[in-house]
Amino acid sequence: MESGACCSPLVREPLTEDWAGDLARMFKALGDPVRLRLLSLVASHAGGEACVCDISETFDLSQPTISHHLKVLRSAGLLDCERRGTWVYYWVIPSALQQLSAVLLTESGPAVLSEACTAEVPA
Prior knowledge:
Number of helices: 7
CATH topology: Arc Repressor Mutant, subunit A
Radius of gyration: 18 Å
Mean pLDDT: 83
CATH superfamily: Winged helix-like DNA-binding domain superfamily/Winged helix DNA-binding domain
Strand order of the largest sheet: 1-3-2
Order of helices and strands: HHHEHHEEHH
Low-confidence stretches: 1-5, 111-123
Shape: elongated
Distance between the termini: 24 Å
Number of domains: 1
């Protein structure tokens, strides 16, 4: 195992400007409860993808509003989609979820410095 591999990137070193921008767009998109639920519905749907027709009825929102939220999730790089006939099918982009979780991941518990991390972080 690499030294410091258990540490969140936030603890190991500062994020680059580009990476911070990408992460901020994803976290901002997930800052809305409807979008967070939409991502969860798509991710947990059988087969890992969901037709917009399957998820729209879960919400007391108009179809254009659902489409707007799905577009925001796509623009943030969290979802991708494909039109099949008259319906659009969505799926989660696994690498995006990996980025979000990796930046916050710690060996266990809340983000704190471990002995392995403190050796690499300047005081």
